[in-house]
Design goal:
The chain is 41% helix and 22% strand. It is built from nine helices and eleven strands. It has helices spanning 29-46, 54-60, 80-89, 125-129, 146-155, 164-174, 180-186, 191-202, 213-223, and strands at residues 5-9, 19-23, 50-53, 70-75, 93-95, 102-107, 110-115, 117-118, 121-122, 132-136, 139-143. The strands form four sheets. The protein has a five-stranded mixed sheet with strand order 3-4-7-6-5. Strands 1-2 form a two-stranded antiparallel ribbon. A hairpin with a 2-residue loop joins strand 8 and strand 9. Helix 1 crosses helix 3 (80-89), helix 5 runs antiparallel to helix 6 (164-174) and helix 5 runs parallel beside helix 7 (180-186). The chain is globular, with a radius of gyration of 20 Å.
Length: 224
């Protein structure tokens, strides 16, 4: 979640006494990458299938995102016990959240999310088998397939969490590597996702549906 924080600067030369300014959370990119590599090494040695998701996955695909909050790994629920014990042996602190679809951990002050369900869909071996192997700050790790990554991000949008600004650069950066037909099919019941895909058409990131000759024929059939 992107959170704006407020800070009071006494005698701020740009705002004067007691000026309240908005500030982004600090950029933790390198610290998060170090934790990602540490946890990734444990997961690789465990033999359990996994894949990077979230902002670090976007970073691995070359998208210029600032890493501020955490590193996210998708794994199967049935492997979580094994992974948790291995992380504890490594000295990584496990934090049990109230949610039943993930486990949280902390290392070096950074948060780690081990996720068993992406936007309400269980993480499966088939999903993880589609992952791409990419370098993440010099360490090769499996990263969720671009199409699966877009589907999981879009399906998670809701009236209470709908940050198109954060998602737009991801869509632009991945557009040539995504099966957009599958994205549309698997998110058609999610209004916020449908609206975002329409926006991508208006912005020229994707072809607009009304530019598709087949869409035009369907529209003519409906008018008849």
């Amino acid at each position: 979640m992107n959170v704006m924080t407020q800070a009071t600067h006494a005698g701020d030369e740009t705002g004067g006494e007691g000026r309240i300014v908005d500030a982004l959370p600090p950029d933790h990119t390198q610290a998060i990458l170090e934790v990602t590599k540490e946890v990734g090494a444990v997961l690789k040695n465990s033999g359990c299938p996994f894949a990077l998701v979230g902002s670090v996955a976007a970073y691995a695909y070359g998208i210029p995102v600032r890493l501020q909050h955490d590193t996210d790994f998708a794994l199967r629920a049935e492997d979580s016990g094994t992974v948790v014990e291995l992380l504890r042996e490594r000295g990584i602190r496990i934090v049990d959240p109230p949610e039943d679809w993930l486990v949280k951990a902390r290392s070096g002050g950074e948060q780690i999310d081990l996720i068993f369900s992406l936007a309400g869909r269980a993480v499966t071996k088939e999903l993880l088998d589609r992952a791409w192997i990419l370098p993440v700050d010099s360490v090769h790790l499996p990263v969720l397939d671009p199409t699966d990554l877009m589907i999981s991000r879009l399906a998670a949008l809701s009236e209470h969490h709908c940050d198109y600004g954060a998602l737009l650069p991801v869509a632009r950066g991945l557009r040539e590597r995504v099966d957009w037909d599958r994205v549309r099919e698997e998110t058609r019941d999610h209004p916020m996702a449908v609206a975002f895909l329409y926006l991508l058409g208006l912005l020229g990131v994707l072809p607009r549906a009304d530019d598709d000759p087949a869409a035009g024929e369907e529209g003519a059939d409906r008018r008849d």
